[in-house]
């Protein structure tokens, strides 16, 4: 993926790339969508209108194809309505509810797609239809290749069977021979790490254990398509870190990944493309940052906007609290993850490492909020570079950037560098941050060709911020210096 989606209706433009969507026709569109669509078009996000052909790239390269897909449920007006209907032939108190409606979607092999939307938008319903757990009411779903899915609810497990029996059953469903599945059992057991519970019925498992086993199966069956629906909502910090590492490894090896998460930061960091669902309709698609902006705009303009924004803040805070003891991502050197602005690293430089030093120049793993640190970044060039710059970004546990600086911000330059030459850069700054775990991303940029990312290392270092030395509470995300003075009556009455 990675190419910017073009605005709808641009004359003479041909759609290129990996992802395609189309807006539903026929039924009345939610008025709120007009606000979101206008904002999306301003940002250059691709919005498909009724009747447009929504295909990007070569059709045969699509690994997942949805055509006119919809899912309809019949909903009773009350708990007893369905029972009363039995005795009233020809009458019904149910009404139709479309959880997903008229979605066209083409996803190319190797894509990493984030799916955003409020609760009830149709995200899980869409993934369940793609995974085959649920059948569409209208349209067709085609998946070319082996698909493995991980749902937070543990869907796909028989509660009466043991963990080992469920592993074998899942393998048979995926078309894997018994002997091959037995050969993989050791890796699955080691990854799940649930001990003797492997031979106990699933109904005795906690939600975390079901999540661990489901994840272990999905990432060890060499699936071409991996579906993750809040896959890391359960499990301890150590397992989540291990799972994140495997997710990045699979993504980087070319596995197609469809990803739903409450963490907007994680979607921005992990995915190369995103789509936004609203009331079962597909609204926009594009680079994750752009679609996240559309999602926030949708929240701002909804009728219950205040409650929607508060709910979103609470979900982000809950995610951050649950993950505050984890690294948000493992250390990785570019390519292939997109860097800032969606640029994919070329690999023409390497971030050798990043080290955090305290105020005395000693290596530090933890520092007090409000203290000074130095981040030392070590680089090596893979070609001659006339001019380049280094970047450091600090992210919180939710993956959101809280601070970023470059060599240019400090008036420093990385002048001409030769092939194989190494360089070190010190970034010194204060950390008036809320206590918690932070990760540092680093990148090397070049101004040539309109701006090129030479290398990017995500979570190159981890910084633990502890409470301030004087013990005062940090009530917000940052602890900004402030002066407070109470005015006497004469000062209050003084003009201007």
TrEMBL record:
Listed SUPFAM superfamilies: P-loop containing nucleoside triphosphate hydrolases
Biased segments, Basic and acidic residues type: 301-322
Name used for this protein in its record: ATP-binding cassette domain-containing protein
InterPro entries tied to this protein: AAA+_ATPase, ABC_transporter-like_ATP-bd, ABC_transporter-like_CS, ABC_transpr_TagH-like, Bact_Polysacc_Export_ATP-bd, P-loop_NTPase, Wzt_C
Region of interest (Disordered), ranges: 301-346
GO molecular function: ABC-type transporter activity; ATP binding; ATP hydrolysis activity
UniProt keyword Hydrolase, yes or no: no
PROSITE patterns: ABC_TRANSPORTER_1, ABC_TRANSPORTER_2
Keywords, in A-Z order: ATP-binding, Nucleotide-binding, Transport
Record-linked PANTHER family: TEICHOIC ACIDS EXPORT ATP-BINDING PROTEIN TAGH
Organism field: Rubrobacter tropicus
Superkingdom of origin: Bacteria
Family: Belongs to the ABC transporter superfamily.
Domain ABC transporter: 81-304
Gene Ontology CC: membrane
Signal peptide: none
């Amino acid at each position: 993926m990675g190419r910017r989606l073009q605005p709808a209706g641009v004359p003479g433009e041909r759609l290129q790339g990996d992802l395609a969507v189309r807006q539903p026709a026929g039924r009345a569109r939610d008025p709120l969508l007009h606000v979101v669509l206008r904002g999306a078009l301003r940002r250059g996000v691709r919005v498909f209108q009724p009747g447009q052909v929504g295909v990007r790239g070569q059709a045969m390269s699509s690994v997942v194809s949805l055509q006119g897909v919809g899912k309809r449920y019949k909903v009773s007006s009350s708990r007893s309505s369905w029972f009363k209907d039995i005795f009233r032939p020809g009458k019904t108190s149910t009404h139709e509810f479309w959880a997903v409606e008229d979605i066209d979607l083409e996803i190319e092999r190797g894509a990493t797609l984030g799916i955003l939307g409020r609760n009830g938008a149709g995200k899980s319903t869409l993934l369940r239809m793609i995974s085959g757990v649920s059948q569409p009411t209208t349209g067709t779903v085609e998946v070319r290749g082996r698909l493995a899915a991980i749902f937070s609810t543990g869907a796909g497990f028989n509660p009466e069977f043991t963990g080992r029996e469920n592993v074998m059953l899942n393998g048979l469903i995926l078309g894997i021979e018994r002997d091959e599945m037995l050969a993989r059992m050791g890796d699955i057991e080691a990854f799940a790490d649930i001990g003797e519970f492997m031979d106990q019925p699933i109904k005795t498992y906690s939600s975390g254990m079901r999540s661990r086993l489901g994840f272990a199966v999905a990432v060890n069956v060499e699936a071409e398509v991996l579906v993750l629906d809040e896959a890391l909502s359960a499990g301890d910090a150590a397992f989540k870190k291990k799972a994140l590492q495997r997710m990045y490894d699979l993504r980087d090896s070319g596995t197609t990944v469809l990803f739903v998460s409450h963490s907007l930061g994680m979607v921005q960091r992990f995915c190369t493309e995103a789509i936004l669902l609203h009331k079962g309709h597909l609204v926009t698609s594009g680079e994750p940052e752009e679609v996240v902006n559309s999602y926030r705009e949708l929240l701002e303009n909804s009728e219950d906007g205040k409650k929607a924004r508060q709910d979103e803040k609470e979900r982000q805070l809950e995610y951050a609290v649950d993950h505050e003891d984890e690294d948000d991502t493992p250390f990785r050197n570019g390519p292939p993850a997109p860097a800032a602005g969606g640029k994919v690293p070329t690999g023409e430089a390497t971030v050798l490492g990043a080290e955090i030093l305290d105020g005395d120049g000693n290596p530090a793993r933890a520092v007090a909020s409000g203290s000074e640190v130095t981040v030392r970044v070590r680089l090596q060039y893979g070609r001659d570079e006339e001019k380049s710059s280094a970047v450091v970004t600090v992210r919180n546990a939710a993956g959101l950037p809280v601070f970023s600086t470059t060599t240019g911000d400090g008036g420093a330059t990385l002048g001409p560098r030769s092939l194989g030459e190494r360089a070190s850069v010190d970034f010194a700054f204060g950390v008036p941050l809320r206590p918690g775990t932070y990760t540092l991303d680093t990148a090397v940029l070049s101004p040539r060709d309109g701006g090129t990312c030479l290398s990017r290392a995500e979570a190159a270092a981890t910084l633990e911020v502890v409470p301030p030395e004087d013990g005062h509470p940090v009530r917000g995300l940052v602890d900004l210096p402030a002066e407070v003075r109470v005015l006497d009556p004469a000062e209050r009455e003084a003009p201007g």
